């Protein structure tokens, strides 16, 4: 069974807030649900499937389904960190293709700026061996960057070009946290956080959220929105596997990406727009290589050639400013990757960054810690 | 170490590892069925799921695969690293040395560092050229 053309993204909505001290996290989820239903032209009672991940308060989907007032016949709370919501689109398409639901709601929301982080999963099997090392996302991804530089000669200047491209796009987004266009020199002058990653190599921290509606073809065609089809998808999980499978320069996207392209029957050269999860600049570089937009090790040259800048390069990326400049709601950016890809395919991105006649896009993401264990999910989306 | 190191919480699956750590010995786990070593240690082999596995004392030397020195926050600077042991498995650890003196590829040796009320943990220090 393939999900190709079996499901459409009928709704995509990003919460405009970036700081929400006066709201609860469930409330933000509900606002995202209301926003995406209005975007699609559907109502609460149309929803018969619900998807959420670890940011959803409560036990799996149980609390949120009750809080939102949903009545569903399909639920999925698969958590692969920030990539979860890209994977949820794929799982929703599978469920729709199998007849298990016809309108799937995916929500994400959280308030990392307003509410302290509730802590790690201390019952993980690796915890006794890893929690004392002082690993954060910064030094975990820092090790990936350091190894990529060691193996392939990638430079801090090349990584900086990824931030330059994101900031060039973010200047047009009124909701973006960072709207100033930065230069390579600005990135290199920002404080070192964890070698070799500097402050401007890192994404923002933002409150907020987003939601998606994945629906059956006949429902999509009954609505007044442009048709965005799910054409292909892939997912994978990778870790050091007993310490014998350590390779910090290749991510699980090397599996999820080719799987998605194969299902869609297209190649990287066919892609007109790319949403690429940008927790850090290095996260983008490694995914570009793993998805086949350039060879392994050639990512530095690819980005320094301005390829990611809309209207300039071959592969416009993250035209909302991405996690690097726009938003990274509750430290999980997968949903905003899908949302901006849908905007591009609908022709609803900001005119300054809209890809002309955008017909085929990829949304790909990494969740968890690239330096330890992570999940990847890739979607190929098509305007029909 | 400039920072205080939180105590690991041993469990029944890995208690011998921590008992050995208190003796200054680094243990890895090896599978009797497929022969593969692994770290962090599990009761069942992550390559064939055999329960026929055994503790093995590692030589305690290896090379830095990658590293990143945290420059911000109250504990900075400290260096997170993967060390690939000579036996094969990679260990997520800290390099307990001046960050300016460490690099990928450098040979290192294990040393055990005290924690806040728990067993000591394996960190690594560069092997000096003369030593
Ligand atoms: Zn085995």
UniProtKB/TrEMBL annotation, chain A:
One of its GO terms (molecular function) is acetyl-CoA C-acyltransferase activity. InterPro entries: Thiolase, Thiolase-like, Thiolase_C_2. Gene3D superfamilies: 3.40.47.10. CDD domains: SCP-x_thiolase. Residues 242-382 form the Thiolase C-terminal domain. It comes from the Bacteria. This is Thiolase domain-containing protein.
From TrEMBL, chain B:
Residues 18-52 form the ChsH2 rubredoxin-like zinc ribbon domain. Pfam families: OB_ChsH2_C, zf-ChsH2. Residues 55-112 form the ChsH2 C-terminal OB-fold domain. Keywords: DNA-binding. The lineage of its organism: Bacteria, Pseudomonadati, Pseudomonadota, Alphaproteobacteria, Sphingomonadales. GO terms for molecular function: DNA binding. This is DNA-binding protein. InterPro entries: ChsH2_C, ChsH2_Znr, NA-bd_OB-fold, Thioester_dehydratase-like. The keyword DNA-binding applies.
